[in-house]
Amino acid sequence: MVDAKTIQRRLERYADDADPLTRVSNRLALILAANQPFYPFYVFWLTGALDPLLALTFVSTPFFIAAPWVTKRFPAAGRLYFPVVGALNTFFCAYLFGSASGVELFLAPCLVIAALSCRAAERLALGIFVATLLAGFLFLHERFATPIGDPVQFQTLLPLNTYSAAVLTAMAAWMLSAGWTEGEVTPKT
């Protein structure tokens, strides 16, 4: 039987990378993936109902779990992989739940993660990501006015999504700032 410490060591090894920013980005992706199964319970707690559409939020989970695998095989694009998946998931969930749900607020941590996890040599890729993300938001925002599910139910998600996006943004900024400090002082070889 595998105990919790063994699982933790395996996850740490899986997320590990010589680059401190990549390592932190990988850990954030795994934290987000681990949190996704609880989202329907949060919604149930707030609304008292479980909409079958909530199961669609799990579509992105394997992509978040794959972030460390991608960064090991494609180092140049790896650090932007996680925020790209996060942005695509955000747009998908905004389509499902509508703009009134506040799910588009998760674009903020996507921007923070992308901006703080990229090095100077990756500025062009970062600029393309930011421009695409902003264009996507400006183009798609009004088209999310009518959710697929119950609009009244999904409007009650605004406080949850506001809080969650703020916490993820703060956590990402905190963790990635430590990665910058570690990268400047003692990069792992």
Automatic annotation (TrEMBL):
It holds the Pfam family MASE7. Residues 13-174 form the Adenylate cyclase MASE7 domain. The keyword Transport does not apply. Keywords: Membrane, Transmembrane, Transmembrane helix. The chain crosses the membrane at residues 53-71, 92-117, 123-140, 160-180. This is Adenylate cyclase MASE7 domain-containing protein. It comes from Methylocystis echinoides.
